[in-house]
Structures are given as structure tokens and as C-alpha cells.
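Quick note —
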Amino acid sequence: MLQPEYISHASISSMEYKLPLDIFYHWEKTKPDTIYLSQPIKGKAHTWTWKQTGEEARKMAGYLKSLDLPPQSNIALISKNCAHWIICDLAIMMAGHISVPLYPNLTAASIQKVLEHSEAPVLFVGKLDNWSTMEPGVPSKVRCISFPFYPHQKYDQWYDVIQDQQPVANTQRKGDELMTIIYTSGTTGMPKGVMQTFDSAAFAITEGVAFFNLTDRERFFSYLPLAHVGERLVVELGSLYSGGTVYYAESIDSFSKNIQEAQPTAFLGVHRIWKKFQEGILAKVPQKKLDMLLMIPVISGLVRKKIKKGLGFTHARIVITAATPTPAELIHWYKKIGITIIEGYSMTENFGYSHANPVDGIRIGTVGITLPNSETKLGEHNEVLVRNRAAMAGYYKEPAMTQEMFTSDGFMHTGDEGHIDADGYLTITGRTKDIFKTSKGKYVVPSPIEMKICSNAALEFCCVVGTGLAQPIALVTLSENGKQLSPDSIKSNLEKDLSVINVSLDAHEQLEKIVVIGDTWTVENGMLTPTFKLIRNKIEKNYQDQFEAWYAEVHPIVFSKT
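Predicted structure written out below.
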């Protein structure tokens, strides 16, 4: 048996993998009239076959080549998920350039930082909610091209520029060429540009498709930002390499209708969406009633079937959670209603390929096993170190930072603290950079405590702080369900949680207070990253002046007046 502190899953692969464009050309040739992309626009489904997708991508590639840009120029795109996001990405590949996707909820200042740092001469602008407030971040020298269906009138229009354009032939890219620069959402400071090659993408998705046994009958539902490595890998590359179909959500209001129409077989979620789904279910069937119904043999089956149908999960086969930790209690909750969630773990820096629970061997509370052709070991302070072929080529323009990310033997630092059991399952126990020291000189790892607290359906976010305090305190925000409860109900609810949670913690970790914050933490006010991760230093800075006053309160549950 392998030692728990070092797990190697097969050998580091030296085989050749088919690159993304070659895979696309295969489907374009073998099933040209099969629908690849299906997007609702004003309530009506618009579809693109593999052939139609190729025709538009080839023409746009021809237009990009007509601009006489230097080879392998960085071409940026900013849009919510839509068919033309993928078509545009394919066009950038075919034109011989490198894609630089931007999150569709960035501020003008962040857009300016990324565009200036990447030196992108062209920006595709698509489906966006608040472009007027974001647009000032675009440098004047950047040429903008508007996606169709969401026209930005002052820019060149997609169908206008490709109308008389000759489509490019089958462009061949090399494995070691850069495919994309993915700017991390960044919990501190300037986002880092992660450089990924065609080979790293091909390795990650070829192995991923085989691990989850994806086929050309898969139906993917795209709603998480495609600028994020998870959606890019699972939905864009997953559909491309499996030959499946991608369906989209039109808006928040139509999300439920769209996913029910799509009936995905493969679905990627994050902690926040699982909480939102849970809130919607409990708003219709309170927990006590749900528990009672699930205890009745015949009724329980009907209830589970109805819930799955309502969520659009009737045919869901591969349901994954990743990006941010999902509390084990929440995954158990879904299992009770008949939905099996597979938790995985990875980084932008290894193209989303690192760990996942196997479908036939899920261990809730872990992020699974080392994926095929990867290696994992624990370093100093039990830091998780990973080595595989999906590792980034480096941080764009940051050689020193790139060097710091790798050990002398080629393992990548994750910054996460972990534990590997005897069977090779990894449990993330904290974030090494998030550890803080109380006034007693004791170190506290906040994330495991936060996951325990956030299993409560009345809460949306939790941030455990305590630098300079004798004991840590938890700052929490309410979910939509929680906002419907009376202060007395919330107080009683959290007091029970606090007593249970503290019993499970070491003495120096036990929470002195839970503070219910009246504010909402959003991307827009700088408390969350575009992928809804806490920006701890911003949260702490925003409330630190009140820490001591909250700590001195008599009652264990404090309601902030902010």
C-alpha cells in the first residue's frame, strides 16, 4: 500500500493527445448536421450545428487574420455564456492567436488592468448586464467587436465583418503553443495570467472525459462563467471532446425553465448554486415536512422524482461540485433527495485537472483521488503538491512568481493544506495562507470551521476571523431563506449550531461569537471574487474596527447594525 503522504496515479503520461481544433474538425466532418450549441434568445431556442459553428468560426478567424496582427497575439473576450463565446474561442484558435477571457462581472478598473497587462489589441464584447459601467476600462487603442444578438452599436458587428470573409482552412496548432491566458479571479491584488498550452488542455480533458465516461449523448448546461477554468474544462472542452451538446441559460429569471428544457446529463455546480437550489426546495417544502415525506416508502420516491424534475436533473448522470469547498452536510442533504454530487478539486494553474471522487467510489467530505497520470504528495505544513501534464507554462510576464509555484522536482504548490487517507482520498483541511494567529498565540485554520457553519440553510457566506482576538469569531450573511426568519428564530438557530460546532473544535479554535452582518457581500462591493470566493483581507478591513465591540457583547449571537 502506498504511503498516505505520497500518491501517484499511474505514470506521468508521455502519450500524444489530440488537440482541441483537431477534435473539432473531427465532429465537423463526421456529424456536421448534429446540433452542437443551443441558446435561448428572447425565449426562443437558436441552434448551431457542428457545421454552422465551424462556418462562423472559420470566417471570424479569416477576419482576425486580415487585421495583420503579430502571430499568437492575445485576443480578449468578455461576455456571459452564449453560443458565440465558444464560436469566438474556436475562431481565435483557428486564427493562430491566444484567447484571454474576462469575467463578465469585472469592474472597469479590473478590465483595464487585464487588458493593459495582456496587451490585447482586440476585445470581443458580448452578452453583458452592465457594460456601460465596465466600458470605461477599455483602453482607447483596443479594437472592439460586438457579438450578435447583444449588439454594442459603436463597435464592429460580428455578422458584418464576416459577411464577405473567406473561411480559413484547417489551421493546425502545436501542442506547446499557448492556447489561452486565464486570469485568476484573485482574492488579493492583481489577477495573475495563467498561461496554458494546447497540450495541457488536451491532456486534462482527454483524461477527464475518460475518467467520467462522457459520450456524445451528453447534454451540458452552461451558466457558470466560461472565463473560469472549471466551466472552460467541463463544458466547453468537455462538450468538444465528448461530442455532446451545450445548452444555455438566458437569464436568472428563466434559469429554472431553461435547465428543465435542457435536462442536462452532466452538470457542474459550485457551493453557492447548491445553496440556492436548496433554498428554493425548502421554500416550497420546509425541512421538517421534507424529512417526514422522505421517511414514507412510496411517497419518498415520488418526492425525490419531483424534486429532480423541478431542478432539471431527471437525466443527470454526472453532477460535479468544485471551485469552492462544499460542506459535507450539504452533499449528504442532496444524497437524501436522490442527487449524488461528486466533489472535485483543482486549480486554474493545472487546467482544472487534479482530484475527483470516482462515480462508483464517492467519499463525501473528501475531494476524491488523484486523477489518472497525476501525482500528489504532501509538503511542508501538509501542503498539497500536485504534478501532471496540465501544469501551466507559467504566469504571464511573471517569471519569478512562476518559479515560486514549483518545487525543484516539478510539483506545483497549491497553497492548500490537506490529508491523504490510506486509500488515496484527499481531504482539504485549510488554506495555508488563510491561517491566522489569535492573541493567545494559537493558529486557526478558518475554512473547515466556515464549512461547518455554512451547512446551515439560513446562511449564505461565512468568514471566520480572529487576528488579535483571544478566540475567533464568525461573520455571517443571511441567505434568502434566512432573511425570511425572525431575529429570534435566527438567534435560536445559530445558538444551537454554535454549541454543536464548538464541541467539535479544539479549545483555541472555538468561536466566541457569531456575528450576523446586515450587509450583502457581492462581487460589486469587492467582498467576493467573480467566482464568489471570499476576499478575506477586504472583509476583515471593512469590519475590523468593530471586532472588539462585537467580542465584548454579552450574547453569543450578535446582530450587526451595519
